[in-house]
Amino acid sequence: MLYRGFLSLVDRLPLPSLRAQRITALIVILTQGGIAITGSVVRVTASGLGCPTWPQCFPGSFTPVGHGEVAVLHQVVEFGNRLLTFVVVLAAAAIVLAVTRARRRREILVYAWLMPAGTVLQAIIGGITVLAGLVWWTVAIHMLASMLMVWLATVLYAKVGEPDDDAETVQTIPQPLRILTALSGLALAGTLVAGTMVTGAGPHAGDKSIENPVPRLEIEIVSLVHLHAELLIAYLALLVGLSFGLAAVGMSAAIKKRLAVVIALVVAQSLIGLVQYFTGVPEVLVILHVAGAGACTAATAALWAAGRTREKVPSEQSVPTA
How much is the pTM? Predict the structure, then answer.
Protein backbone atom coordinates (compact mmCIF):
# COMPACT_ATOMS: atom_id res chain seq x y z
CA MET A 1 0.00 0.00 0.00
CA LEU A 2 2.81 2.39 0.93
CA TYR A 3 4.74 1.49 -2.23
CA ARG A 4 1.65 2.10 -4.37
CA GLY A 5 1.36 5.56 -2.86
CA PHE A 6 5.03 6.14 -3.67
CA LEU A 7 4.42 5.05 -7.28
CA SER A 8 1.46 7.40 -7.64
CA LEU A 9 3.64 10.31 -6.53
CA VAL A 10 6.53 9.30 -8.80
CA ASP A 11 4.18 9.07 -11.79
CA ARG A 12 3.60 12.82 -11.54
CA LEU A 13 7.22 13.37 -12.58
CA PRO A 14 8.27 13.70 -16.24
CA LEU A 15 9.20 10.40 -17.87
CA PRO A 16 13.03 10.30 -18.02
CA SER A 17 14.69 9.24 -21.25
CA LEU A 18 17.27 6.47 -21.26
CA ARG A 19 19.97 9.11 -21.71
CA ALA A 20 18.73 10.99 -18.63
CA GLN A 21 18.76 7.77 -16.61
CA ARG A 22 22.32 6.99 -17.67
CA ILE A 23 23.53 10.51 -16.88
CA THR A 24 21.93 10.28 -13.44
CA ALA A 25 23.57 6.89 -12.86
CA LEU A 26 26.94 8.36 -13.90
CA ILE A 27 26.48 11.21 -11.41
CA VAL A 28 25.87 8.60 -8.71
CA ILE A 29 29.24 6.99 -9.49
CA LEU A 30 30.99 10.37 -9.38
CA THR A 31 29.41 11.40 -6.09
CA GLN A 32 30.08 8.04 -4.41
CA GLY A 33 33.72 8.17 -5.47
CA GLY A 34 34.01 11.91 -4.93
CA ILE A 35 33.10 11.82 -1.26
CA ALA A 36 35.90 9.30 -0.69
CA ILE A 37 38.31 11.81 -2.24
CA THR A 38 37.06 14.66 -0.06
CA GLY A 39 37.38 12.30 2.89
CA SER A 40 41.07 11.91 2.06
CA VAL A 41 41.37 15.71 2.03
CA VAL A 42 39.91 15.73 5.53
CA ARG A 43 42.49 13.17 6.64
CA VAL A 44 45.62 14.75 5.15
CA THR A 45 44.68 18.21 6.44
CA ALA A 46 44.20 16.73 9.94
CA SER A 47 40.60 17.96 9.94
CA GLY A 48 38.98 14.69 10.99
CA LEU A 49 37.92 16.10 14.35
CA GLY A 50 37.13 19.57 13.03
CA CYS A 51 33.58 18.63 14.03
CA PRO A 52 34.24 16.52 17.15
CA THR A 53 30.68 15.23 17.58
CA TRP A 54 28.05 13.55 15.38
CA PRO A 55 25.46 14.15 14.00
CA GLN A 56 26.05 17.66 15.36
CA CYS A 57 29.28 19.49 14.55
CA PHE A 58 29.64 20.79 18.09
CA PRO A 59 27.41 20.05 21.09
CA GLY A 60 24.24 22.10 20.52
CA SER A 61 25.10 23.12 16.96
CA PHE A 62 24.96 21.34 13.59
CA THR A 63 27.22 23.99 12.06
CA PRO A 64 30.76 25.09 12.99
CA VAL A 65 31.01 27.60 15.81
CA GLY A 66 33.89 29.66 17.14
CA HIS A 67 35.94 27.26 19.21
CA GLY A 68 39.43 28.15 20.32
CA GLU A 69 40.63 24.53 20.54
CA VAL A 70 39.72 23.66 16.95
CA ALA A 71 41.20 25.58 14.01
CA VAL A 72 38.68 27.26 11.73
CA LEU A 73 40.21 25.56 8.66
CA HIS A 74 39.68 22.12 10.21
CA GLN A 75 36.07 22.96 11.02
CA VAL A 76 35.38 24.18 7.49
CA VAL A 77 37.00 21.16 5.82
CA GLU A 78 35.21 18.57 7.97
CA PHE A 79 31.86 20.37 7.83
CA GLY A 80 32.22 20.75 4.06
CA ASN A 81 32.75 17.02 3.73
CA ARG A 82 29.61 16.40 5.78
CA LEU A 83 27.63 18.74 3.55
CA LEU A 84 28.68 16.73 0.50
CA THR A 85 26.77 13.81 1.98
CA PHE A 86 23.58 15.65 1.02
CA VAL A 87 24.78 15.86 -2.60
CA VAL A 88 25.38 12.09 -2.55
CA VAL A 89 21.90 11.54 -1.08
CA LEU A 90 20.29 13.75 -3.73
CA ALA A 91 22.02 11.83 -6.52
CA ALA A 92 20.98 8.51 -4.96
CA ALA A 93 17.38 9.71 -4.61
CA ALA A 94 17.39 10.97 -8.20
CA ILE A 95 18.35 7.58 -9.66
CA VAL A 96 15.65 5.85 -7.58
CA LEU A 97 13.03 8.28 -8.87
CA ALA A 98 14.28 8.04 -12.46
CA VAL A 99 14.27 4.25 -12.77
CA THR A 100 11.03 3.92 -10.79
CA ARG A 101 9.27 6.45 -13.03
CA ALA A 102 10.58 4.62 -16.10
CA ARG A 103 9.30 1.32 -14.66
CA ARG A 104 12.64 -0.39 -15.12
CA ARG A 105 13.06 -4.07 -14.31
CA ARG A 106 13.37 -5.31 -10.71
CA GLU A 107 17.14 -5.87 -10.92
CA ILE A 108 17.75 -2.20 -11.70
CA LEU A 109 15.35 -1.08 -8.97
CA VAL A 110 17.23 -3.16 -6.39
CA TYR A 111 20.59 -1.65 -7.35
CA ALA A 112 19.06 1.83 -7.38
CA TRP A 113 17.64 1.47 -3.86
CA LEU A 114 21.04 0.28 -2.63
CA MET A 115 22.37 3.78 -3.36
CA PRO A 116 20.38 5.74 -0.73
CA ALA A 117 20.50 2.80 1.69
CA GLY A 118 24.28 2.56 1.37
CA THR A 119 24.70 6.32 1.68
CA VAL A 120 22.77 6.37 4.97
CA LEU A 121 24.92 3.49 6.22
CA GLN A 122 28.04 5.40 5.19
CA ALA A 123 26.88 8.45 7.16
CA ILE A 124 26.43 6.26 10.23
CA ILE A 125 29.90 4.72 9.77
CA GLY A 126 31.29 8.25 9.44
CA GLY A 127 29.60 9.21 12.69
CA ILE A 128 31.07 6.18 14.46
CA THR A 129 34.49 7.11 13.07
CA VAL A 130 34.28 10.59 14.60
CA LEU A 131 32.88 9.37 17.93
CA ALA A 132 35.61 6.71 18.12
CA GLY A 133 38.27 9.41 17.75
CA LEU A 134 39.36 8.37 14.22
CA VAL A 135 40.75 5.02 15.39
CA TRP A 136 42.36 3.50 12.30
CA TRP A 137 40.03 0.53 11.73
CA THR A 138 36.92 2.74 11.66
CA VAL A 139 38.56 4.92 9.00
CA ALA A 140 39.44 1.74 7.07
CA ILE A 141 35.83 0.50 7.14
CA HIS A 142 34.65 3.94 5.99
CA MET A 143 36.99 3.82 2.99
CA LEU A 144 36.16 0.23 2.06
CA ALA A 145 32.43 0.93 2.25
CA SER A 146 32.93 3.83 -0.18
CA MET A 147 34.70 1.54 -2.65
CA LEU A 148 31.87 -0.98 -2.37
CA MET A 149 29.38 1.77 -3.18
CA VAL A 150 31.47 2.77 -6.23
CA TRP A 151 31.39 -0.85 -7.42
CA LEU A 152 27.61 -1.14 -6.99
CA ALA A 153 27.01 2.25 -8.64
CA THR A 154 29.10 1.21 -11.66
CA VAL A 155 27.18 -2.05 -12.06
CA LEU A 156 23.96 -0.04 -11.79
CA TYR A 157 25.16 2.27 -14.58
CA ALA A 158 25.87 -0.74 -16.81
CA LYS A 159 22.48 -2.31 -16.15
CA VAL A 160 20.59 0.94 -16.75
CA GLY A 161 21.95 0.94 -20.30
CA GLU A 162 20.58 -2.55 -21.01
CA PRO A 163 17.10 -3.21 -22.43
CA ASP A 164 14.35 -4.54 -20.17
CA ASP A 165 11.88 -6.05 -22.66
CA ASP A 166 12.47 -8.46 -25.55
CA ALA A 167 15.97 -9.12 -24.26
CA GLU A 168 18.00 -12.12 -23.22
CA THR A 169 21.09 -12.55 -21.05
CA VAL A 170 24.26 -13.06 -23.08
CA GLN A 171 27.51 -14.22 -21.50
CA THR A 172 30.16 -12.31 -23.45
CA ILE A 173 33.04 -13.69 -21.37
CA PRO A 174 33.28 -17.50 -21.14
CA GLN A 175 32.60 -18.89 -17.66
CA PRO A 176 36.21 -19.91 -16.82
CA LEU A 177 37.43 -16.43 -17.74
CA ARG A 178 34.51 -14.87 -15.88
CA ILE A 179 35.72 -16.70 -12.79
CA LEU A 180 39.15 -15.22 -13.45
CA THR A 181 37.51 -11.78 -13.66
CA ALA A 182 35.91 -12.42 -10.26
CA LEU A 183 39.30 -13.44 -8.85
CA SER A 184 40.78 -10.16 -10.06
CA GLY A 185 37.98 -8.40 -8.19
CA LEU A 186 38.91 -10.32 -5.03
CA ALA A 187 42.56 -9.36 -5.54
CA LEU A 188 41.45 -5.74 -5.83
CA ALA A 189 39.51 -6.09 -2.56
CA GLY A 190 42.57 -7.51 -0.83
CA THR A 191 44.70 -4.68 -2.21
CA LEU A 192 42.24 -2.11 -0.87
CA VAL A 193 42.15 -3.75 2.58
CA ALA A 194 45.95 -3.81 2.73
CA GLY A 195 46.02 -0.18 1.59
CA THR A 196 43.80 0.89 4.48
CA MET A 197 46.17 -0.93 6.83
CA VAL A 198 49.12 1.00 5.39
CA THR A 199 47.16 4.19 6.01
CA GLY A 200 46.35 3.02 9.54
CA ALA A 201 50.03 2.69 10.33
CA GLY A 202 51.10 5.75 8.34
CA PRO A 203 51.58 9.41 9.20
CA HIS A 204 48.15 10.74 8.16
CA ALA A 205 45.91 9.99 11.12
CA GLY A 206 43.32 12.67 10.35
CA ASP A 207 44.05 14.68 13.49
CA LYS A 208 47.28 15.97 15.02
CA SER A 209 46.18 16.52 18.59
CA ILE A 210 49.15 16.19 20.92
CA GLU A 211 46.97 15.75 24.01
CA ASN A 212 44.87 12.92 22.53
CA PRO A 213 46.80 11.32 19.67
CA VAL A 214 44.82 9.17 17.26
CA PRO A 215 45.43 5.43 17.88
CA ARG A 216 47.47 3.94 15.03
CA LEU A 217 47.97 0.39 13.78
CA GLU A 218 51.02 -0.90 15.65
CA ILE A 219 52.58 -2.88 12.81
CA GLU A 220 55.79 -2.03 10.99
CA ILE A 221 54.68 0.01 8.02
CA VAL A 222 57.34 -1.42 5.68
CA SER A 223 55.84 -4.90 6.11
CA LEU A 224 52.37 -3.55 5.35
CA VAL A 225 53.66 -1.71 2.27
CA HIS A 226 55.17 -4.96 0.97
CA LEU A 227 51.87 -6.79 1.56
CA HIS A 228 49.97 -4.05 -0.24
CA ALA A 229 52.42 -4.08 -3.17
CA GLU A 230 52.35 -7.88 -3.51
CA LEU A 231 48.56 -7.93 -3.60
CA LEU A 232 48.63 -5.20 -6.24
CA ILE A 233 51.05 -7.30 -8.31
CA ALA A 234 48.71 -10.29 -7.95
CA TYR A 235 45.81 -8.11 -9.09
CA LEU A 236 47.76 -6.93 -12.14
CA ALA A 237 48.96 -10.48 -12.92
CA LEU A 238 45.38 -11.77 -12.92
CA LEU A 239 44.38 -8.98 -15.29
CA VAL A 240 47.27 -9.84 -17.63
CA GLY A 241 46.26 -13.51 -17.52
CA LEU A 242 42.68 -12.51 -18.26
CA SER A 243 43.91 -10.47 -21.23
CA PHE A 244 45.71 -13.45 -22.74
CA GLY A 245 42.70 -15.68 -22.15
CA LEU A 246 40.30 -13.26 -23.79
CA ALA A 247 42.68 -12.68 -26.68
CA ALA A 248 42.77 -16.43 -27.27
CA VAL A 249 38.99 -16.89 -27.37
CA GLY A 250 38.16 -13.50 -28.86
CA MET A 251 36.60 -10.50 -27.19
CA SER A 252 34.33 -7.64 -28.18
CA ALA A 253 35.59 -4.10 -28.66
CA ALA A 254 33.74 -3.03 -25.49
CA ILE A 255 35.51 -5.63 -23.33
CA LYS A 256 38.87 -4.87 -24.95
CA LYS A 257 38.45 -1.18 -24.12
CA ARG A 258 37.46 -1.86 -20.52
CA LEU A 259 40.34 -4.24 -20.02
CA ALA A 260 42.84 -1.72 -21.39
CA VAL A 261 41.45 0.99 -19.09
CA VAL A 262 41.72 -1.26 -16.01
CA ILE A 263 45.33 -2.24 -16.73
CA ALA A 264 46.32 1.37 -17.44
CA LEU A 265 44.75 2.55 -14.18
CA VAL A 266 46.43 -0.19 -12.14
CA VAL A 267 49.84 0.65 -13.61
CA ALA A 268 49.27 4.37 -12.90
CA GLN A 269 48.14 3.56 -9.36
CA SER A 270 51.29 1.48 -8.85
CA LEU A 271 53.48 4.38 -9.94
CA ILE A 272 51.70 6.77 -7.56
CA GLY A 273 52.24 4.30 -4.74
CA LEU A 274 55.95 4.01 -5.50
CA VAL A 275 56.41 7.77 -5.58
CA GLN A 276 54.47 8.04 -2.32
CA TYR A 277 56.75 5.54 -0.61
CA PHE A 278 60.00 7.17 -1.70
CA THR A 279 58.89 10.77 -1.07
CA GLY A 280 57.50 10.40 2.45
CA VAL A 281 53.79 10.14 1.60
CA PRO A 282 53.05 13.75 0.54
CA GLU A 283 49.45 14.87 1.06
CA VAL A 284 48.61 15.52 -2.60
CA LEU A 285 49.66 11.99 -3.59
CA VAL A 286 47.46 10.52 -0.85
CA ILE A 287 44.48 12.27 -2.44
CA LEU A 288 45.48 11.07 -5.92
CA HIS A 289 45.94 7.52 -4.61
CA VAL A 290 42.43 7.49 -3.13
CA ALA A 291 41.05 8.83 -6.41
CA GLY A 292 42.98 6.09 -8.22
CA ALA A 293 41.52 3.44 -5.92
CA GLY A 294 38.02 4.61 -6.81
CA ALA A 295 38.87 4.65 -10.53
CA CYS A 296 40.34 1.12 -10.40
CA THR A 297 37.26 -0.11 -8.53
CA ALA A 298 34.88 1.45 -11.05
CA ALA A 299 36.87 0.13 -14.03
CA THR A 300 37.02 -3.40 -12.62
CA ALA A 301 33.28 -3.31 -11.91
CA ALA A 302 32.62 -2.15 -15.48
CA LEU A 303 34.69 -5.06 -16.82
CA TRP A 304 32.80 -7.50 -14.59
CA ALA A 305 29.43 -6.11 -15.71
CA ALA A 306 30.44 -6.37 -19.38
CA GLY A 307 30.97 -10.12 -19.00
CA ARG A 308 27.25 -10.79 -18.82
CA THR A 309 24.81 -8.41 -20.48
CA ARG A 310 21.22 -8.21 -21.67
CA GLU A 311 20.76 -7.76 -25.39
CA LYS A 312 17.75 -7.29 -27.63
CA VAL A 313 16.39 -10.46 -29.16
CA PRO A 314 16.46 -10.00 -32.95
CA SER A 315 12.97 -10.03 -34.41
CA GLU A 316 12.17 -12.90 -36.71
CA GLN A 317 11.95 -11.78 -40.29
CA SER A 318 9.09 -13.22 -42.21
CA VAL A 319 10.11 -15.52 -45.04
CA PRO A 320 8.36 -14.60 -48.30
CA THR A 321 6.17 -17.35 -49.72
CA ALA A 322 6.47 -18.46 -53.30
Answer: 0.91
Report phi then psi at 58, rounded to 5.
-130, 155
pLDDT band at 316 (very low <50, low <70, confident <90, very high): low
d(CA 307, CA 178): 7
Q: Which helix (H) or strand (E) holds 171?
A: strand 167-171
Q: What is the mean pLDDT of residues 188-208?
A: 89
How far apart are alpha carbons 64 and 50 in whole angstroms? Answer: 8
- Cβ contact 75:67 at 8 Å: yes
pLDDT reading at 67 higher than 80:
no
Environment class of 291 (CB within 10 Å of its CB; exposed 0-12, middle 13-18, buried 19+):
middle
From the centroid of its chain, how far is CA 208?
A: 27
Cα–Cα distance for residue pair 87/81, rounded to 1 Å: 10
Question: Is residue 154 classed exposed, middle or buried when 0-12, 13-18 and 19+ CB atoms within 10 A define those classes?
Answer: buried
Close Cβ partners of 144 (under 8 Å, ≥ 6 residues apart): 192, 193, 196
Domain boundaries, the chain: 2-312
What are the distances in angstroms from CA 95 to CA 9, 98, 146, 150? 15, 5, 18, 14
> How does the average pLDDT of the chain come out, rounded?
90
Question: Are 258 and 224 within 8 A, CB to CB?
Answer: no
